[in-house]
């Protein structure tokens, strides 16, 4: 429970459920090229109530040839 081995933790894990929410918006530039803006919210990352929340923003591009 929160040791310093392979599991995420620092030895004093206060366990709570991890919450993840993701949103994205995709925009077609052409029929074979589009971009998307993404947002992720992670509450209690690694099931640890003493860490987080974490906000992740990203942009993706997709092209088909």
TrEMBL record:
InterPro entries from the entry? Carb-sel_porin_OprB, OprB_sf
One Pfam family named in its UniProt record: OprB
* GO terms, molecular function: porin activity
Q: Which GO terms describe its cellular component?
A: membrane
Biological process per Gene Ontology, one example term: carbohydrate transport
Q: Which family does it belong to?
A: Belongs to the OprB family.
Protein name in the entry: Carbohydrate porin
Look up and give the organism this protein is from: Candidatus Methylospira mobilis
Q: What is the lineage of its organism?
A: Bacteria, Pseudomonadati, Pseudomonadota, Gammaproteobacteria, Methylococcales
């Amino acid at each position: 429970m929160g040791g310093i081995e392979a599991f995420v933790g620092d030895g004093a894990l206060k366990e709570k459920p991890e919450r993840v929410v993701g949103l994205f918006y995709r925009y077609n530039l052409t029929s074979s090229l589009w971009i998307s803006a993404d947002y992720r919210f992670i509450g209690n990352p690694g099931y640890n109530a003493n860490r987080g929340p974490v906000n992740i923003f990203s942009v993706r591009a997709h092209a088909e040839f």
